Amino acid sequence: MASHKYLSLIAIITGLCFALNMANLSQSAEQNKKRDQVAAERLFTLKVLPLLKVKCFGCHGHDPKDVRGDYNLMTREGMLKGTDPEEPPLVPGNPNKSPLYQAVLWNGSEMPPKENDRLTKTETEWIRKWIAAGAPWPDAKTQLAIQKQEWSVRENDEGIIVDTSGGLADDWTYRRYRPEDIWAFQPLKQVDMQKMKLAGQHPIDFFVQRKIDKEKLKVAPQADAPTLIRRATYDLTGLPPGLKDVSQFRKAWKKNPQQAWADLIDRLLQSHAYGERWAQHWLDVVRYSDTAGFSNDYERSNAWRYRDYVIRSFNRDKPFNEFVVEQIAGDELRPGDPEAVIATGFLRMGPWGTAMIPQKELRQIYLDDLVHNVGQSFLSIPMRCCKCHDHKFDPVPTRDYYSMYAAFAATQPAEMNVAFLPEENRKGFAEKRKLVAELLEYAKAERDKVVNKQEAAAKKWYAEHNLPYKNENARKKDPEDKKPPRHVGLTPEEKGIKKVREQDVWIWQRRLERYEPMAQAVYNGQDDYKNGRKLRPPKRINHKWRPENFILSGGSLEAPSHPVSPGVLSATGLAVNSQAGNPHQITADLQGRRLSLAEWIANDKNPLTARSIVNRVWQYHFGKGLVKTANNFGAKGGKPTHPELLDWLTTDFIKHGWKLKRLHRLIMSSEVYQRSSKPLNVKKQATIDPDNALLASFPPRRLTAEELRDSALLISGELNPEMGGVPIMPEINREVALQPRMIQFSIAPAHQPSRTPAERNRRTIYAYRVRGQADPFLEIMNLPNPNESCEMRNSASVSPQAFTLLNSDTMTDRSIAFALRIQQERPSQPAEWINRAIQLAYSRRPTPQEQESLEKYLKEMQIYHREHQPEKIEYPTQVVRSLVEELTGDTFEFIEKLNVYEDYVPDAKPWTVDAETRALADVCLLLLNSNEFLFVY
């Protein structure tokens, strides 16, 4: 009996334990289920829903009136319902049977349909897991709680949340970025060089060599002295060294290479040619041009003063942070200082036309251009991407875009009265003004002929209708029955001629302003009517006026939303005023907005500005920046190949006063810069480092368009080293120069070259740059389009370049001048001609083989040219133009005067020299087409 009692007790205990275990298991299962539910809701809230918003809602629910395929994805009910009740698009718990999941995999259906929008494997896996978990769709309150919990963690495995002024939605404000994508917004990393084991190495060599050693590459040896002087001279001056320069450098190099190199760099940096060369780099970035572009392409007659300001700034080694502030806000920094006002020509560099554009839209175009250009030029952050929405990839909210927009909202473009500086070149103003005045008087006379005929007929009409006569302007707004027909008394041809001559008068009046003490600049004032033909500040400025600025939804003027105040980019973490409620807000006064912005940009602690210019300088020395996208340090730009080196160089640059010449010395004194361009092991280097990002050897490059023209002029003895002044007009292809170039109502004036060789054969930076008509020689040699900022010259070689270098008038003229120089220096000595030609072209003496083959070629060409005489080409003094009158469709003709050719002094041409000279010119042309002349190694 006792045993039975014990068995019963055991059974009871066992039952209780089993029940307890079952309860625990049930509770554990419930907890697991709840945990899985929470995880699924987090997955939906943080991953799936944002993905649907970006990829799907635009077509499937965002616009209730236009739901593609009648499939609304904006609710769980809509997602489950679909359009076919028998085949629901979403089967919770079973992704493989869910057509929605198969569509995002592109199995059968393809959603999103565009290849660029196709989901990644990670994104499709999010959707699979979500469906497998039952496709939960938590309510808005739950979603917000999940989001807030996520936002409280600033950094995790998925990235970093960046503090900004805030996006238009919380999803953007609290999104995460990979650290490597936002490197440029982070403070400079301080590198303790004391802890680095430099072992006597140059700091640049230390950082570069570490990566090379890691890849087990061998570096190229040091280049020889002739190669180094040519490399350095082109880099710093854009011109080749002379034979004497090379000879002296070689001697100094043998005695003390380090001292010879340092002395060479110092000498080149002191050359006026340095400013001309490095100013060209900056003018590429800011899109320098002498005309405005668009339908009229009006001349910016005084833009040359900004160009010369840039050259002066580089030659004077102006601290770059000061250079920045002057260009953005020189007029606010030093009111009344001509140099500071001229500097604001930077704000006038973009293409901008006013014809047939509403004034509000016109204003928006100008301000948008300023924001974008300031962003990419100084900060290497393109701003155009966030005009319509928060930036898709970078921590730049559209609020910041419109804060910068507001910083420029009081800025108005104008031709300002600015006294000439003593150092500005005004040589030849009287003679040049005279040529323009002649064309203006001719245009006025031709216009007046037609206007006088019209007004005579108008007077007759008024008399016949017993009305008092009114001139053309006075009667414009009169009723039609109270004034004569618009072009009364004129033939269809005369109607067209009147428009043409009125346009000509405007053009030549504008051209005369080149010689007036005016500058393409800006002022702060109220918005008013703008006409690109003549921009002048108002007589009175309303100092109480303040612009109102809003975030424009979709970039539309018709959709203003949240108001904004002037401010700066918030993602940098650099506050303007830490005491203010908004630390990134600047003054809202009429004056001082740009100055506050400029000082923030040029601040030592701004992580973008100094990095940007240091990277640009490195690029111009090595052909590629440490960041290959010099205008874009954002997530879609390149990443630094040597981030520590970039930050060390930038820190050093700031520490030593933002001085560019010191930066040149630092870079060029490194072994990296002085290496040969011939790799030790070509095959291994091409395999491991095909782009030469590690810089185991120096990257060779072709001459730029300007370097090519300037070098040919220097070698031919034609180059006039005169600096500054109004633009020169080189000879260009005559067919292009005289072809009709349409502008509104008329044809733009033909390209008339400067009258004398001394005027037109100056450095190319001084050449007239027309947005609507590029110099064909320079364009084919990859001169950049001035409508867009050029971060790096295109160095692609195409077949038309070879034809141009061999056959163009530009190169033919240079080769003839080259030959004449040689004959003058070595009269009647054909063997010496070859020797001297090589010396001038290559800064060395010819090899025996070169001497022999070129003498043979010279003799062949002498025989040819004795048997063939070139045809003489005359310069025209006028050209007949033909146009169609827009109102009647009738064709009419008119004469354009080419008055420069009435007293023109041409360069030497084939028909002006004898057969011996033409033969030698062919030898010279051959040298100017050689790789040794065209490339820097």
TrEMBL record:
Domain Cytochrome c, residue spans: 35-135
GO MF terms held by the record: electron transfer activity; heme binding; metal ion binding
Region (Disordered): 468-492
Compositional bias ranges of the Basic and acidic residues kind: 472-483
Pfam family, one: PSCyt1
Keywords from the UniProt entry: Heme, Iron, Metal-binding
InterPro entries linked to this entry: Cyt_c-like_dom, Cyt_c_Planctomycete-type, DUF1549, DUF1553
Name recorded for this polypeptide: Planctomycete cytochrome C
Gene source species: Gimesia aquarii
